[in-house]
Amino acid sequence: MADPISLSLIAVGTAMSGISAISSGYSQASNYQAQANAQNYNAAVQKQQAQLAMAQSVEQSNAQHRKAAQQLGEQRAATAQSNIGFGGTGGDLLEQSANYAELDRQNILYNGLLTGMGLNAQAEQSTYAANVASSQIGSSITGGYMSGAGSLIGGVGNYMGTSRSIDRQQRLDKIMGVM
Q1: Are 46 and 122 in contact (CB under 8 A)?
Q2: Three-class DSSP labels, 117-170
Q3: 95 lies in a domain?
Q4: Is residue 177 part of a domain?
Q5: Residue whose C-alpha is closest to residue 55's, from 108, 1, 14
Q6: 65, pLDDT greater than 50
Q7: Is residue 82 pLDDT above 50, yes or no?
Q8: How many domains does the chain have?
């Protein structure tokens, strides 16, 4: 007869090992889910920031346009008052000022667009990272069960080997007359 205490300890140890492996798989799945949630949140915030950056650049360009229009009006008034005239150098200076003002306005819009595009690219990367983390949830759970099954199978093998070894030793002891 096999030693019941030894065999019970092997059985309990095997069960605990299997449960631990499965629990580890679920823990890893929970970590992947948390990563996916964080990355999805980051993506949403980055998209909002992109929209805000572009909207702000439109407002800043409008403010630049209003400011430039006021300055150009003052330049026209000063040109008219100085009797330089609007032809020749006086007109060229006004035209150049208008061109620079428009270039400033367009640069503001372009910088806002670049900022928005950069933030949208970051949002896409965050979404990709969330998808990768989500795709690993199932495999981590499966891995936990596979590891748990391996622990159980190994434990059963150990239990059977120990049981046979003990039985063999007890038969030998009977044959040899050792009690």
Answers
A1: yes
A2: HHHHHHHHHHHHHHHHHHHHHHHHHHHHHHHHHHHHHHHHHHHHHHHHHHHHHH
A3: yes
A4: no
A5: 108
A6: yes
A7: yes
A8: 1
